[in-house]
Every structure is written in structure tokens, then in C-alpha cells.
Design goal:
The complex is a heterotrimer of chains A (95), B (484) and C (493). Chain A is α+β, with helices and mostly antiparallel strands. Chain A contains three helices and three strands, in the order ααβαββ. Chain B has 484 residues and is an alpha+beta fold. Chains in contact: A-B, A-C, B-C. β3 of chain A pairs antiparallel with β11 of chain B.
């Protein structure tokens, strides 16, 4: 399975993992080896097979449309890495 | 202006926030305008270990919308994760629907009788809000109150052919959603949002051109203005021999221009997959049927019925049905008052004006349909003139009371007695000899002056038609007398 | 009563009838912690000693007054650190959540607390439950009480070791691909992965949403049944939890296995399985036959695709579940002085360890445009094949018996450099997660060095009662002497 350093970086960026060159190279090799092993998946005959559904099955349960005030929510900003008043604060979002 | 060699192709994506009490996947309140980060809980904050639970009413309202828009409801639909990173998206994915939305198809009728087809409608959760404070340009602020609000996303087919048509589509869509009680469609409060995409294609061709996406459209007119601007820009680009880039543009309502978004555009790979925390959404036919039974008559059919049943003109029908409440008010008046045209005229004119000045809804108007019907009856049986009626209406609106009582209190009864009118006519003719001469000399226009003088002399109370007839008769007699 | 070795259910009964004081029980556990914890490192967070003794005293007072006691009153238990409890940290073994304090309590934990259990602390684990040895914890490895140079297994290594060492009377772990069963097997204790949906996942920090289950680890099968009964049952706040009431498995535990059909797949006994493990497992199967069960041959041919299907599907879900760790609202933040993108990258690069990054990358890859059909969708279809294999097998048998692990506990550091080898060692446990079926491990022997071996029993969906009954039958055969070696010395072999 061909995963080169650039492909690893592209995938890492989708996941916002900031890999440097060395990391990317190493992970690319590891991924390639792992995915090569997993290629056996291709041999499975999945013609006409549907994706798995859990034995719980049934349909999405629905809750009544009633408001509940959350006690945990009151302290939403506790533990925030950075805040300004009642807002979470992050580096400037551009665009 | 030279005709464009291009056809415009527009598609719209509209998000409408559903009128539920609580959010779509958690019981936090679905409300606008509260203190930041006060309508939140571990679920909508995306804390570790939390799970979504679907709101029953959100599904009901989504079904209502689908029915009102004539869409096909899928018996089984699937939620999906749309994965991307943004500070207003706590889980790093949005729970939406991807290849199996709950509704396919549908359409919005336009005033000219044509329809704009929809591709699909699906359910999803809203993201939070970002603020970019001016005083702190190194940071942005995140408010997650809105995060998790229930939305439906309505996607049109790329069949809108002009910016104006896009505008009419939005007006029609909003009307239907308001009627169905699905959303309050308020763009200022963000309960209705619209993104547009536009491409040009040489006339006669079928292959679609490269489209651009327009965002930050904060009103229906902004949608129209932005589309006009973009159509012009794309045309110029193509006529210059250049290519249109597939990009996203942000509309600036102040400068009235759109500019490309400044983030480096990696094409989004959302990596959609079925949401493992939610089993499929199964919507029973019986549930659909009971919801359908509670749908009100929608604007389109109501307009047709008004025109047929009440004989109102199309334009008046459109105004009267622009809100369900106004239409309802009209029907209550029409039930008690046979001159439907007069009722329509009064409602679309005077009544609407008063509603607007007082910023009131028809259901809360100080003058109810019964009182209005009684007032208009006094006009119809010629007890008062139409202009007198407006004076009475003003009193009823501001002070209340009964129409007949106010008429007497203000001494507004019309003078319809022929004898009295005769006397009036005689004195007007006597007092306005020069104008009478002019009239008799052939100046037909002066008749109006004489009518006005008589009206003024009567304190506005002369019955116009009786007065007119009497005046004309008297003048003709004068003329006849002359000739003799 | 030998509090160090007595099973929790016996202690429970003794507290309720007054023959033991809860205080003595808690003191025994605290003593074990004082003695062994610095060596074993089972815990990441310990509840305060004084507080625990106070709570024990309250139980004793209530009993003296004659108040009705909740079922698990005074029983000290440990919770894996990915199960949130308000008032205690939840690190998931990761720097990302090193200082995270959850604002709510997991449903399963709440049910234990309502039943009167005392939470002694949060146990060590592989980071975000990704691993099979607890060596992937950002806060140091846990050691196996049976051999201090050995891994306890993972990812619920801290929970299993704590139970084995007497540092808790039972524990909760989580199992996504074997993370309860493999450490329970390595540590000589019983462990159950319930049917998917039998126990609420609310409050379990998600690894792979359609695989994860919380489950009990205990000194005996009855302990496991007791805890399962307390935590199972529908939770309206978990849309994937089964709409059925939990429990009732302890009552039927001694029903026996007469007439039970036990399926055995010979393909599990081929290469890669340690000979001593094979021998002990076969003895466990024989014990069932002697107790009245019938052994039948079955085949689970899709099992050769199980590892790739598991890792692809689980990692895909994990890549999405871990996206919320972005430095914005809680947890670690790094790179705050740079751009937003820089903050994301620095936070996630620093906060996640190597194994977590590997799995996020594999998962992201498997879902990414151009690859999703060949990888993620295919893996989800293979899951159906695996489930169909089991369904076919359960036409001719009632439970399936086989090995839980290919070897006994390996040495610390032995598999750290070979992630693939680590993955392949999950071969026996992952199929139950792929099919959503319940699976139980029960110790059934030891190897030459005295390291525990377990037999794994897999059952039909929501048939934990039959499974636990069969496990109890194996246990009654007395194949495993139980209790860690007093000296905890090195093992050779």
C-alpha cells in the first residue's frame, strides 16, 4: 500500500495533526505496513451484503420536546483553556 | 441593453430553524438572544462521553415542512457525520443527513404559476456562533447557544433562472413555512439562512458552467443583489475569454460586492459516514397522515380559493393571503358582509396601513372582523360615505366603540335625502356662477369643482352619487332653460 | 473471612447481614492499595482515604439502625478512567485530558453509586482505550500482579490488575476490541463484554461508537453477574441502548449446563496459539462437557477478515470521536499564540500519543474521499459477514467456547515497537465486538510460570444469562487456583 510522506501529511492535515517531516515519514511507513496487512479485506466477498446494523436495531428513539436547564451547562466555561467573559476565546478565525 | 448570450443557472440552499422548544439532540432551550453560552449542556458542548437523542417535535415539524412543500418522505432515513474542524463545531463533526435524507423532491410555486423544484430536504443540527471582536483582532469568540438548534436544509434543483426568480422563490418558501408553522423564518435572527450558487451557460447549451457559491446573504434583497452582481461578473469574465473559478464568495452588503473567502481553499473532504450513535429514523405512514391532517390550507390553494369563492382579484388575493392571520380575518369579515370586493379593498388598504403603523398582527387588531363588517355595512347601505367610514375606523381603532354609535356621535350620517341635496345643489349653483358658466360653456372638468364645493358645504356628508345626479340634473335644466 | 480473596458477592451478603463491617472491607482494600499500588500503578486517581472510610461508616450505621441497604452497599470498586464521574478527573490515560474534570456522571457509574457502591478511584488505561497492554498510557504502565515484569493487558489494564491485586472488589472497564476480556484473562479474573446496547454508553468517552461497551471485571463469575445486573438496562439518554430491562443474571447462575450446546471452532486452535493456552482452554471446554454440555463443531470462516474489518471500522469511528479534542472548550491547549490551525495542530500533536495518532490517521484515511468505499464501507459489510457466521453457528449451538488470547501476559516492552503484532493478538476477542455479541472470560488454568489462562465464551445477543451460567460452571470445575502470588515475583518461560 503506497502511502508516502506527502499523503501522510495530507491525511494528517484532515485530522489536524501537526506532523513534522520526520513524524510524517515514520507514520507513513507504519500506515503503509498496517494497510498492506489489512488489504486482505479485499478478498472478502461482500457482493450484495449490507452494512452491519447493531442487534439493538429498531428506529431512533425520540424524546419529548421539553426544555431542561442543565446544571453542568451553567459551568460550561469552567476548564476553558481561554475565555473572555462568557465566551470561549480562540485565535482569530480568518475567512 | 444587449441580450446576454448566457443563461443564468441558480441553485439555493436554505436553512430554516424549526420552531421547537428544545434543541434537536439535547433538551437545552432553542432560543435566540440570550447570554452567551447559557443555553448549553454537555451534549451540545461536545463534552467527552455524550450522546445525541432525537427531538420528537423536530421530526414532526420536518415532516410538516416536507408535506407543505410537496416532497416525498422516505420511510427510513439515516443521520450522518459531516466531519470538519471549526471552533463553532464542538464535536468536530456535524450530525446531518447525507445520502439518505428524510425527504426528496418537493417544489415551491411562483406567482406566475411556475414551480421551482427541490432536490431534497434534510434534518441537521446547527453550529454555534463566532464573533470577531474589533478591539481584539488576535482572537475570535465562540458562543454555543445556537449549537444543536434543529434545522432543515432545503436544496433547490439548479432551475432558478434569474436573481428575481430567486427572490420570489424565497418569498414563496417563507410564506409556506410560516403557514405550516415550521419556522419563524426570520433572517435577522438567523432562523432563515440562504446560500446561493450561480453559473452561466451559453444559450442553448445543456452543460452546466462552473459555479460559484455566495455566502453571507442576510436578506432576500441581498440574495437578489448578490446574484445580480455575480451574474454580471461571471459574464464579464467569460466574455473576456477567461475562466470562472470554482470558489466561495462572501457578499458584503455595504460595498455591494462579493469577494473570495480568504481561507486557503482545500476542497472540503467531509468524510461522511452514518452516525453510529443514532439508529435510522423511521417515519410511519400513520404519523405522516396525522400530521398531514393538521396542516392548514397553504397560501397557493388559499389564493385560488379566494379568487374563486370571493371573486377577489389576484393581486388582492396575494396581499390577503400574505399571512394566515390576515386571510383568516378577511374570511371572518366576508362571512358577515356580502360585498367581498369592498372588504378586500378596505383590508388591503386602510386596515393594513393601521396594522403596519401600530406594528400589530391582524389577530390583535383593536377592531375585530365583526365590527369592521358592521362598519362596512353602513357604507354599503349608504348611511355613510367611504371617507366618513375611514374617520369612524380611526376612532374605533384608537378608542373602541360601536360603528353606528360613533357615526352618530360624530354626526357623519350621509345626506342622501333628495330634497336636502336639491337645496344644496341650488345654493352651490347660486354661489358659483362663474364656474357654472364655464361648465355650461363646455368645460366638463369644472363639474368636479362644483361637486367638491357642494361636498364641502355639506361638511363632507353629502351622498356622492345622489349629489352627483342632482347636480348634473340641475345643471342640465339650466342648460335646457338657456336654450329655450 | 479472607477479605483479600473473597469474591465481592460474598462480602456483599456479609455486609448486608451484618457479619462484616463495611469499614473492614474498605480498610482491606486500602491496605492492598498501600502495599501494592506503588509497584502496580493500577490507579490514576485515588479517592481520599478518609472520605471512603466515612462512607463505609455510614453504611455500617445504616445497617445498625435497620435501614434497608442498597444492593452493593459499601462495596469498593474502581472505574476505568474513560468513564466519567463528576468530582473525579477523567484523563482517558491521555495528556489531552490530564486536567479534565467532567461536569456529569456516566449512567453506569450513577447506577453503581445508587446501588451503594463506593468508588475507590479511576484506573489506568491505554490512551483513549487504544492498546492491548496499558503501555500506551501517558502516565506510565500498570504491572500485572502475577508478574511485575508483565503487562496486565489493555486497554482496561488498571481495572483488571486492581481487581486481581485486591485493590478493588470489582471494577468497570470498557471493551471495544477485547479491552475488558484480554486484561481479565492476563490477570486471572473474570470479565464480561455485554451485548452491544445492553449497558448505556453515556459517560463512556467514545473510542468506536458501534463497538464500545462498558462491562464488569470481578473475582468470580457471580461478581460479574452481580455488577452486570446493576448497570445493564435501557438508558433514554443513549439512543443505542437496548429497550429492555437489564439484570436477572445472578439468579440463574447455578442453573447448570445440562443440555447446553457448546460450539468450538477448530480454526481457533491452529497456528499462533500458545500450546499451554490451548491446553488450558481445552480443559475448560472439557469441564463444560463433564457438567452436562454437548460440544459441537462449528466454523467461523469470516474470522480471517476480522482484524482488518475491526481496525478499519473502529479507527474510522474513532477518528471522528476524537475530533472534539481541539483545545477550544476543555482539555489541553497548545500553540495558543499562533493561528487557529496552528493551535489545532499543536494541541493534537502534543496531546495525543503515537498509537492514538496512528489510529486517527488510519481512520481518517479509511473515510477519506476515494478510499471510503474500498475501506470503511467494505469493513462494515464484512461485519455483516462475521455476524452472519455467528448467527449460523448459533443455529446449532448455544454458546461458543475458545481461547481469549493467543498467549499469556507478555513482558512489558515486548510488543511496543510492533503495532501490527499488537493488533494481531486481538484475533480472538474482536469478533464479538464486530457482531455486537456478549462475551465472557473466565480463568481456567495457568501456564508453566503460573501466569493465568482464560477461556472465552461468546453468546447470543442479550443472552448474558446463559453465558454467565456456563462461566459459573467452568469456575466450579476449579481449574484455576485464583489469587495473585503473594510475592508477585518474576515469571520465567
Amino acid at each position: 500500500m503506497d502511502i508516502d510522506k506527502d499523503e501522510a501529511k495530507r491525511i494528517a492535515e484532515l485530522a489536524r495533526l501537526g506532523l513534522d517531516d520526520d513524524d510524517a515519514k515514520r507514520l507513513a511507513e507504519e500506515m503503509a505496513a498496517i494497510l498492506e496487512c489489512f488489504r486482505a479485506l479485499r478478498e472478502a466477498d461482500v457482493e450484495g451484503v449490507l452494512p452491519w446494523i447493531a442487534p439493538v436495531a429498531g428506529s431512533a428513539p425520540e424524546r419529548p420536546d421539553i426544555v431542561e436547564k442543565s446544571r453542568a451547562g451553567k459551568n460550561a466555561l469552567d476548564g476553558a483553556p481561554d475565555r473572555a467573559g462568557r465566551h470561549f476565546r480562540v485565535p482569530r478565525v480568518i475567512g | 441593453m444587449a441580450e446576454s448570450p448566457f443563461d443564468i443557472v441558480i441553485g439555493l440552499e436554505v436553512h430554516a430553524r424549526l420552531l421547537t422548544e428544545s434543541k434537536i439532540f439535547c433538551p437545552c432551550a432553542n432560543r435566540f438572544g440570550e447570554e452567551p453560552n447559557s443555553l448549553v449542556c454537555p451534549v451540545c458542548l461536545g463534552m467527552p462521553g455524550v450522546l445525541p437523542v432525537l427531538n420528537h417535535r423536530a421530526v414532526d415539524l420536518a415532516v410538516r415542512a416536507a408535506l407543505a412543500l410537496d416532497g416525498r418522505i422516505r420511510p427510513v432515513s439515516v443521520f450522518a457525520r459531516k466531519n470538519y474542524f471549526y471552533p463553532d463545531l464542538p464535536k468536530g463533526y456535524q450530525i446531518s443527513q447525507f445520502d439518505r435524507p428524510f425527504c426528496e423532491g418537493g417544489a415551491v410555486p411562483l406567482p406566475d404559476g411556475s414551480k421551482i423544484e427541490l432536490i431534497r430536504i434534510h434534518l441537521e443540527e446547527d453550529a454555534g456562533k463566532l464573533l470577531h471582536p474589533e478591539g481584539d483582532d488576535g482572537h475570535s469568540l465562540v458562543d454555543l447557544n445556537r449549537c444543536g438548534d434543529p434545522l432543515i436544509e432545503i436544496v433547490t434543483a439548479p432551475v432558478i433562472t434569474s436573481p428575481e426568480e430567486a427572490y420570489l422563490f424565497l418569498v414563496g418558501l417563507k410564506e409556506i413555512l410560516l403557514y405550516a408553522g415550521v419556522s419563524d423564518c426570520n433572517m435577522e435572527e438567523g432562523s432563515l439562512r440562504c446560500d446561493a450558487n450561480l453559473s452561466l451557460r451559453p444559450r442553448g447549451e445543456t452543460k452546466l458552467g462552473t459555479k460559484t457559491e455566495l455566502k453571507n446573504l442576510n436578506s432576500f434583497s441581498a440574495v437578489r443583489a448578490a446574484l445580480r452582481w455575480e451574474a454580471t461578473r461571471q459574464e464579464r469574465t467569460l466574455l473576456d475569454g477567461k475562466k470562472v473559478n470554482h470558489e466561495t464568495l462572501l457578499w458584503n452588503a455595504e460595498t455591494k460586492e462579493a469577494s473570495p473567502m480568504r481561507t486557503k481553499e482545500e476542497a472540503h473532504d467531509y468524510r461522511y459516514f452514518p452516525e453510529p450513535d443514532l439508529p435510522p429514523l423511521v417515519i410511519d405512514p400513520s404519523r405522516i397522515d396525522s400530521i398531514r391532517a393538521t396542516l392548514p390550507e397553504l397560501p397557493g390553494p388559499k389564493r385560488e380559493r379566494f379568487m374563486k369563492e370571493y371573486g377577489v382579484r389576484r393581486y388582492d388575493a396575494e396581499v390577503l393571503t400574505s399571512s394566515a392571520e390576515l386571510a383568516d380575518y378577511y374570511e371572518k369579515v366576508a362571512a358577515r358582509f356580502p360585498d367581498r370586493a369592498l372588504a378586500a379593498a378596505f383590508l388591503t388598504g386602510t386596515f393594513l396601513r393601521y396594522l403596519s403603523e401600530d406594528d400589530t398582527a391582524p389577530g390583535l387588531a383593536p377592531v375585530g372582523p365583526g365590527a369592521l363588517a358592521r362598519l362596512l355595512s353602513l357604507v354599503r347601505d349608504e348611511t355613510i360615505s367611504l371617507s366618513a367610514a375611514k374617520k369612524v375606523f380611526d376612532v374605533l381603532w384608537k378608542e373602541g366603540g360601536e360603528p353606528a354609535e360613533v357615526v352618530d356621535r360624530l354626526a357623519l350620517r350621509q345626506i342622501s335625502d333628495e330634497g336636502e341635496v336639491e337645496k344644496l345643489v341650488v345654493s352651490v349653483i347660486d354661489e358659483n356662477a362663474p364656474q357654472v358658466e364655464q361648465f355650461l360653456g363646455g368645460k366638463e372638468k369644472v363639474f368636479g369643482f362644483l361637486v367638491g364645493a357642494a361636498m364641502k358645504k355639506s361638511g363632507g356628508r353629502a351622498n356622492p352619487s345622489v349629489l352627483g345626479e342632482a347636480l348634473r340634473a340641475a345643471l342640465e335644466k339650466r342648460r335646457g332653460g338657456r336654450r329655450a | 473471612m479472607d477479605l483479600r480473596n473473597a469474591p465481592a458477592h460474598t462480602i456483599r451478603d456479609a455486609i448486608r447481614d451484618g457479619s462484616i463491617e463495611a469499614r473492614a472491607v474498605v480498610e482491606s482494600v486500602l491496605d492492598a492499595i498501600a502495599r501494592d499500588e506503588s509497584d502496580l500503578h493500577c490507579y490514576l486517581h485515588l479517592a481520599g482515604r478518609d472520605r471512603l472510610l466515612e462512607e463505609a461508616d455510614r453504611v455500617d450505621e445504616a445497617r445498625r439502625r435497620g435501614d434497608p441497604l442498597p444492593l452493593l452497599a459499601g462495596i469498593p470498586c474502581a472505574l476505568k478512567d474513560n468513564i466519567v464521574v463528576k468530582g473525579m478527573p477523567a484523563t482517558c490515560g491521555s495528556k489531552m485530558l490530564e486536567r479534565f474534570h467532567p461536569p456529569y456522571t456516566a449512567t453506569a457509574a450513577r447506577r453503581l453509586l445508587d446501588a451503594g457502591a463506593l468508588i475507590t478511584g479511576k484506573t489506568n488505561m491505554d490512551e483513549f482505550a487504544m492498546g492491548s497492554s496499558t503501555e500506551n498510557s501517558a502516565f506510565g504502565a500498570t504491572r500485572n500482579p502475577w508478574g511485575r515484569d508483565r503487562v496486565p493487558g489493555g486497554s482496561s489494564g488498571g481495572s483488571a490488575a486492581a481487581v486481581a491485586a485486591g485493590e478493588a472488589l470489582f471494577a468497570l472497564g470498557s471493551d471495544t476490541g477485547g479491552s475488558i476480556r484480554q486484561p481479565a484473562a492476563f490477570c486471572g479474573v473474570a470479565g464480561l463484554k455485554p451485548t452491544y446496547g445492553a449497558v448505556s454508553r453515556r459517560g463512556l468517552v467514545a473510542f468506536a461508537s458501534s463497538f464500545d461497551q462498558i462491562g464488569p471485571i470481578g473475582r468470580s463469575v457471580r461478581d460479574v453477574a452481580m455488577v452486570f445486573d446493576a448497570i445493564a438496562g435501557v438508558d433514554p439518554r443513549d439512543s443505542t441502548s437496548a429497550t429492555r430491562e437489564g439484570g436477572g443474571t445472578e439468579e440463574t447462575l447455578d442453573a447448570g449446563v445440562a443440555g447446553l450446546r457448546v460450539g468450538v471452532a477448530e480454526e481457533f486452535f491452529r497456528e499462533g496459539l500458545d500450546a499451554e493456552v490451548a491446553r488450558a482452554v481445552r480443559r475448560g471446554i472439557e469441564a463444560l462437557r463433564v457438567a452436562g454440555a454437548a460440544v459441537v463443531d462449528i466454523s467461523l470462516s469470516s474470522s480471517r477478515f476480522a482484524i482488518p474489518a475491526y481496525y478499519i471500522a473502529a479507527d474510522a469511528e474513532a477518528s471522528a470521536n476524537l475530533a472534539r479534542f481541539d483545545g477550544v472548550r476543555y482539555g489541553l491547549r497548545r500553540g495558543a499564540s499562533g493561528s487557529l490551525g496552528g493551535m489545532y495542530r499543536a494541541t493534537r500533536n502534543d496531546g495525543f500519543g503515537a498509537e492514538v495518532k496512528r489510529r486517527i490517521l488510519i481512520g481518517t484515511f479509511a473515510l477519506s474521499s476515494g478510499y471510503r468505499e474500498a475501506w470503511y464501507e467494505r469493513a462494515m459489510k464484512v461485519r455483516s459477514l462475521v455476524a452472519a457466521d455467528y448467527a449460523a453457528a448459533f443455529e446449532i449451538c448455544d454458546i461458543i467456547a475458545g481461547p481469549a488470547t493467543p498467549t499469556t501476559a507478555f513482558r512489558l516492552g515486548e510488543k511496543q515497537n510492533d503495532p501490527l503484532a499488537m493488533y494481531l493478538s486481538d484475533v480472538y476477542t474482536i469478533s464479538a465486538n464486530l457482531a455486537g455479541l456478549p462475551a465472557l472470560v473466565v480463568p481456567c488454568g495457568s501456564d508453566r510460570s503460573g501466569l493465568p489462562v482464560a477461556i472465552q465464551l461468546t453468546g447470543r445477543a442479550f443472552d448474558e444469562a446463559t453465558l454467565l451460567g456456563a462461566g459459573a460452571a467452568v469456575e466450579r470445575a476449579g481449574l484455576f487456583s485464583g489469587g495473585p502470588r503473594a510475592d508477585g515475583g518474576e515469571h520465567h518461560g
